[in-house]
Amino acid sequence: MKKPTPKPEQKFNFWLLASLVLVALGLLIATWTPQIISWRSKLVDKLVAESNTQNTLGYLKAAHALAPTDSVATEALAKYYARQGSGTAVLATYEQGIKQPNQIYLGNLALSLQQYDQALQHFYVAERQQPSAASLSGQAAVLFNLGRVEEGCVKAGNAQKLNLNNTQAAGMLQICNLLKANPNEGSRADAQLLVQNQIARVGEKWLLATNVKTPNDWLNLARLAAARGDAKLAITRAEEGIKLDQASLQLNEVLVQYYKWAGDSSNAQKYQRRAQQLEFEAWQ
After folding, report:
1. How many CB atoms within 10 Å of residue 86?
2. Confidence of residue 222 (pLDDT cuts 50, 70, 90)
3. Cα–Cα distance between 131 and 144 in angstroms, integer?
4. Vertex 226, ends 282 and 207: CA angle to 5°?
């Protein structure tokens, strides 16, 4: 049986009705958008507040999932990861949760985590947005870590040309001269200078090459390992430092943190007690 063909006016009425429904729906959404945003913001605030009392990570993740670009949710989750020592998670949270992030900040964060390719991309973006001594100095630091000394020196020179008073640019020029004069290895002081200026890959290599290491050397080496997420190596190095100086508050405190990351609550508590005792004795 042949189906009846809709009349032209029926088709017109259908599309007219559909259009009116869509317009009405659009007006309804527009009318309620402020209320929806307000409700979502209040819920995010409530979840963040609840995270301070129980199931911290669960509440913060829920808040961030509800409003991925909400600054309150993003900042709270990033701060939680920072307290846990998970720098990689901090970086990812900021990258995903902020519409127009500070590229220099993210570049420096990636640099501190020894994620050099990622850091370089952030500094490149920052330079395209607005060339500055900070973006060029950041690029220089990454290039020095990657062994591209000549390129790094050019970036450091350009950074100082943009701002003669910029201390970071001056520091990168100092590093440039140091690496040109000592391409393979340097003294403990040179290694510490490199580490302080975020040239971690080279500084770590030079520090490891020193014949006799101090407790502070082991502390720096432990922190470098921890920065790239190697808890096991960080613990090993910090323990070497503790053998030389059991009264080092800094070494005891980092061992508390590192053992917590490793899930070893027994050793974490042991060094926590030691740290508390050292703090108590310091007040006597």
Report:
1. 17
2. very high
3. 20
4. 85
Instruction: Give the whole-angstrom CA distance, residue 94 versus residue 96.
Output: 6
Do the Cβ atoms of 172 and 142 come closer than 8 Å?
Answer: no
Render pLDDT for 42-92 as a digit per residue (tens, 0 to 9).
Answer: 444 444 454 444 445 665 666 556 556 666 667 676 666 766 667 777 777
**CA-CA distances (angstroms) from residue 33 to 38, 39, 55, 69?**
8, 10, 31, 16
d(CA 3, CA 1): 6
What H or E segment, with its residue span, contains residue 212? none
Query: Distance of CA 91 to CAs 71, 86, 142, 144, 223, Å?
Result: 14, 9, 17, 22, 18
Enter the pTM of the model: 0.73
What DSSP assignment string belongs to 165-200?
T-HHHHHHHHHHHHHHH-SS---HHHHHHHHHTT-H
Sign of the C-alpha dihedral, residues 146, 151, 153, 158?
negative
Burial class (CB in 10 A: 0-12, 13-18, 19+), 3: exposed
